[in-house]
Amino acid sequence: xxxxxxxxLFIWVGNFRYLDIKTKKRMKTLRKLLLVACAAFxxxxxxxxxxxxxxxxxxxxxxxxxxIKPSTLDLTYSGEKLIGKSVSFITEDSKKGTLTLNDVxxxxxxxxxRVELLExxxxxxxxxxxxxxxxxxxxxxxAITPKTMKLDLNVTMPQxxxxxxxLLSELTRGRGKDVVxxxxxxxxEWGEADNQLLTAALYTDMDLEMVKDAxxxxxxxxxxxxxxxGYLLPQLLRNINLExxxxxxxxxxxxxxQLGEQKFSEINMDDPESMQQVSMFIMMxxxxxxxxxxxxxxxxxxxxxxxxxxxxxxxxxxxxxLYVKLNLPAIISQAIQGQGKTVDGNLIAGxxxxxxxxxxxxxxxxxGAVNESLDNSLLSMIANMDYQSFQMFxxxxxxxxxxxxxxxxxxxxIYLDRxxxxxxxxxxxxxxxxxxxxxxxxxxxxxxxxxxxxxNWSIITKLDLGLxxxxx
Length: 472
Prior knowledge:
Blueprint: H1 2-14, H2 21-47, H3 57-60, E1 62-65, E2 73-77, E3 80-81, E4 86-91, E5 96-102, E6 110-116, E7 118-119, E8 124-131, E9 137-144, E10 149-156, E11 164-168, E12 172-181, E13 188-199, E14 202-208, H4 214-236, E15 237-242, E16 248-252, E17 258-259, E18 262-263, H5 272-287, H6 293-300, E19 306-307, E20 313-318, E21 321-326, H7 328-338, H8 345-356, H9 360-374, H10 377-383, H11 387-399, E22 401-408, E23 411-416, H12 418-426, H13 428-437, H14 442-455, E24 460-471
Parallel strand pairs: 2-10
Antiparallel strand pairs: 1-4, 2-3, 4-5, 5-6, 7-8, 8-9, 9-10, 11-15, 11-24, 12-13, 14-24, 15-16, 16-19, 17-18, 20-21, 21-22, 22-23, 23-24
Helix pairs in contact: 1-2, 4-5, 4-6, 4-14, 7-8, 8-9, 9-10, 9-11, 13-14
């Protein structure tokens, strides 16, 4: 009735042209007042639909992010705060809505599900459980206002045979694959030899064209690199866990590493005695292939290991590959805290935003800006990559690092193949100035390990490089 009345009044006021002049002036003023009243009435009648609601749907429907400044998302994943992520929320009536997790569940670009809103004193809450398109079980509890969203997630990934806790493999020796020279033909070929490094913490497998220097090149990888990795990795890590919620954790140590009897800080290139010890260790233990499990036990004795932070890396399996997904903003924040330094929060936010918006050039620029504050050698190398290599690096950030995984004779191998390693190998010459700048034995490491790989990459037909693990 009210709307109908205003409709007739509107028509009546609109047809006052037939009245006298004095009446017209009065009616003109009345018409203006009635037009304002009509507009106010209709706006008020629209509002009545939601006048019993705490917030309009349009206020709640937005993107909430921990990378937005100020942060609008307080997100926990398995009870731990997770940064660098965003979620989107849409509601039509402030009763039900669609929540979309953006790159939160490992391996899922978007995870969307419906939620029911329960109105509280100053916010709306929601909770429940759902199964994602990829089969992950997601239990959620949240609270939302137009300014913030608090969201707690507990995730169980689809069952996988690789979901396990692993130890680094111990060093073992025996008869194994080697490049040998055929005494009859004088040609190099594949064969077997005794005292080969069969297993170590670093996994390698290699094929190459049989040329004159094939034997020394194979020894560089199978003995020098594998031996050095098998010696140093246990000084950093005790175990690696592929957890049921998709987290990758480990027990690691920040205790100083050592080479033989010397800690890294004690190695001095200007001291002949110090360099003689380094040379003897590399020559006797690696080049003469005598590194033993006892040497590794001596280097790891007394080291203090602690659980790694959660939320820095996640894993998922797709197309028989294990993807390792790094949370770059969280890693950079952790590195900043570890160095006791501060950096503009907008840079960290920008990095997260660049990742989400798929802008490799912006990310590369921002990494360079962050490195100006941190002066971190790793960030510097990444920021100075050629664009093609950085594109690959960027795809690893977006989708995860694609790694092969297999189980052979009770050992689990997680590794990069030759195709994945090629852009990294192409980047090796850029490492030479960095290695030369490392005090003590940086140039020796480059000349003995990295340089030969780059120089002979064209004759290497297969190279698998990664971790050799056993069930914990």
